Amino acid sequence: MLIAYVLKSMKTYLERKAAEAKLLEMSDRDLKDIGVSRPDIATAVRFGR
């Protein structure tokens, strides 16, 4: 059970980091279009907009 929890946590972490990386590649204008500012990317990925 512990191993499953750790693996699921690692998967979630890697998915969030991938999403953050994609958003960080976007221009400020594109981010504005979707309602996210650059400083808020991590929060938007973790908790939604």
What do these coordinates show?
This protein is mainly α and 49 residues long. It has one domain. 76% of the residues lie in helices and 0% in strands. Helix 1 crosses helix 3 (41-47). The chain is elongated, with a radius of gyration of 13 Å. The model has no long low-confidence stretch (mean pLDDT 96).
**What share of residues are in beta strands?**
under 5%
Coarse morphology: elongated
Q: What does the average pLDDT come to?
A: 96
**Structural class given helices, strands, pairing?**
mainly alpha
Q: What's the SSE pattern? A: HHH
Distance between the termini: 32 Å
Number of helical regions: 3
Rg from Cα: 13 Å
Q: Could you tell me the number of beta strands?
A: 0
Q: State the domain count.
A: 1
Low-confidence stretches: none
**Major sheet, described briefly?**
none
Helicity level, as a percent range? over 70%
Task: Give me some keywords for this one.
single chain; 49 residues; mainly alpha; 3 helices
Summarize the entry for a quick read.
About 75% of the residues lie in helices and about 0% in strands.
List the helices and strands and how they pair.
Layout (H helix, E strand, L loop, with lengths): L1 H24 L2 H6 L7 H7 L2
